Amino acid sequence: MTSLRATPVQRLAALADRVRREGLPPGLRADAARRVLDVLGNSLAATAQPPARAVGELVAEWGGAGRATAIGTGTRLPEPSAALLNGTLAHSLDFDDTHLPSVLHPSASVIPAALAVAEARGASGAALLDAAGVGVEITVRLGMAGYDRELGNSVFFERGQHATAICGALGAAAAAAMLSGLDAGGIADALGIAASMGSGILEANRTGGTVKRIHCGWAAHAGVTAAGLARTGITGPPTVLEGRFGLLQAFCGDRADPGALTDRLGEHWELPGVFFKPYPCNHFTHAGIDAALRLRGRGLDPADIADIELGAPTPVLRTIGEPAEDKIRPESGYHAAFSGPYTVAAALLGGGGLGVFHEDFTDAAAADPGRLALAAKVRCVPDARCDAIFPHGFPAVLRVRTRGGGLLEERVDTNRGGPGNPLSPGELATKFHLNATRRVTPGKAARITELAYDLAALDELGALTSLLH
Questions:
Q1: Do residues 310 and 381 make contact, with C-beta atoms less than 8 angstroms apart?
Q2: Distance, CA of 136 to CA of 170 (rounded, Å)
Q3: 37: number of Cβ within 10 Å
Q4: What is the secondary structure of 234-253 as a DSSP string?
C-alpha cells in the first residue's frame, strides 16, 4: 500500500504500477476500448487535413527505425514520430472526448502515445487498455487540480494555457512508461520528465492559426520521449507537481488544488464520466447546437428568423463569441468550429452525422453566404443560469425572434455525450463508421470496430493496426 507520506507523483505512479501488474478495475477496460475506437475514428477522418500532411512530411524527413503505425498511411515510424502524427490526427477535427470540470480532451494525447509504444513493444490489447485508462485518469486529475471552484473555471484556461496538452503530456508519459515495463519509480520519473515538456497556448482558438491542432500530437510525442528517457536513466523531481517550482505552481499559482490529484485515488475513477462528442467542433458550442437542433425539430424555418441570442457561460464566450466580428465571419472551416454564431447557423441549416458533421466545417461551408447571413444574426451573451452550471456541464440557451415578432426559446442544461445525456451505443457506432469510412472501406471499418471492442483478448495489436489505412 502506498504511504500517505508519498508525494502526489509517487502516488500516481504507484497506481499506474499496480494497474500495470493487476489490470484496471472491472468495467473500465470496456470504457477504455470505446475511447480507443473513438480516437481511431477521429484520426482516420482527419488524414486529409493540412496539419496532418505537414506533420507527416516532417516525421518522414526525420526518418528512423519504424516500429509503430502511422494512422491513414500504414507507414512505420519510430514511436515518438508515430505518436506526434497520430496525436495530431486525433485532435485535428475537434471531435475528441472531453472531461469536466477540467475542460480538457484526455484521450487524444494518451491513446496515440499508448498505441505507438504498445505496438512497438508487442504489448497485448489488455495492456494497451490498462495504460490508456491510467493515462486518461492522470490527465484529468491534473486538469482538476487546476480547477478553481471560486473562479468557476480552469485556471489553465483563464491564463490562456491549453490544459489538454500540458496535462496530456504527463498522462501520455504514464501510459508509455507502463507499456515500457517501468516500475513505480520509473513511472514517477517519466511523469517528472514530462512535466518539463507539456505546453500549449490557446490564442489560436480566438484569432486563427493551425498550431492548436498539433498540441495533442506534441503531448503524445513528449510522453513517449519522457518514458524513453526515464527507461534510459533520466530522473524527475519527486515534488514535480506540488513543489514550489512544480507544475501546478508554475501554471496555476496559488489557485491550484493539489488535493485533487490523489483524492480517492484508485477508488473513484473519472474515466467513465469523460464526454464523447457528437459534433466535430469545440465542445463549448455543443449545447447551442443541441438547442438549435431542437428548434429545428419544432419546425423553425431559418428564413423566418429576425435575430438570435445565444446565452452561454461567461468564460466560454472568449472562445466561441470573441472577437465578435471574427466569429460571425470565420476565416476557415476549422475556425468555424470555434464559433458560436456559425455553429448555431450550421445546426439550423446543415444536419449531417448526428446533427452537425464534417461537411459543415469545410472552408466552402464556412464561406457560404447563407450560413454567414444567419450567423450574423446571432448575438452571444453571458447567461447566469449557464454560469451556475459551468464547468460541470456545457449549457446554453437560444432565444429566437421571428420576423413576425414571435419569440422561441430552447435551453440545454445537459448537452449530448456526457453521463447525464450519453450517446447510445448505436450513436457511437454511427460516429465511428461515418468517420472511418472517410478513409477506409465499410468492411474495414466494421472489422476495426470488432477488434477494438475485443482488445482485452488480443495477444498483440498487429491485426488492428494493419487495418488503419
A1: yes
A2: 10
A3: 23
A4: ----TTTTTSTTSHHHHHHG
Q: Is the pLDDT of residue 56 over 80?
A: yes
Q: Provide mean pLDDT across the span 31-36.
A: 97
pLDDT digits (tens, 9 = 90+) for 193-212: 999 999 999 998 778 789 99
What integer best gives the mean pLDDT of the chain?
96
All domains in the chain, ordered by first residue: 8-277+434-465 (1.10.4100.10), 283-412 (3.30.1330.120)
Q: Which three cell numbers stand for residue 166?
A: 500540458
Radius of gyration of the chain (CA): 21
Residues 384 and 390: their CA atoms lie apart, in Å, by 10
Name every residue whose Cβ is closer than 8 Å to that of residue 203 and which is 6 or more positions away in sequence: 160, 209
Dist. CA 242–CA 327, nearest whole Å: 38
Q: Decide if pLDDT at 4 tops 80.
A: no
Residue 309 main-chain phi, psi, to 5 deg: -110, 120
User: CB 365: neighbour CB atoms within 10 A?
Assistant: 17
Dist. CA 86–CA 11, nearest whole Å: 29
- β-bridge mates for residue 312, sequence order: 382
CB 210 within 8 A of CB 84: no
- The type of residue at 178 is M
User: What 3-state DSSP class applies to 360?
Assistant: helix
CA–CA separation, 279 and 354 (whole Å): 7
pLDDT digits (tens, 9 = 90+) for 252-286: 999 999 999 999 999 999 999 999 999 999 999 99
Cβ–Cβ < 8 Å for 169, 198: yes
Q: Which residues contact 204 (CB under 8 A, 6 or more apart)?
A: 210, 211, 212
Phi, psi torsion values for 311, nearest 5 degrees: -95, 135
Of the candidates 39, 248, 15, the residue with the CA atom closest to the CA atom of residue 138:
15
Q: How far apart are CA 139 and CA 87, in angstroms?
A: 15
Query: Which residues have CB under 8 Å from 259's CB, separation 6+?
Result: 145
Question: ∠ at Cα 392 (387, 394), nearest 5°?
Answer: 65
Q: How far is CA 10 from the centre of its chain?
A: 26
Question: pTM score, two decimals?
Answer: 0.94
d(CA 185, CA 170) in angstroms, rounded, equals: 15
Question: Distance between CA atoms of 79 and 69, rounded to whole angstroms?
Answer: 9
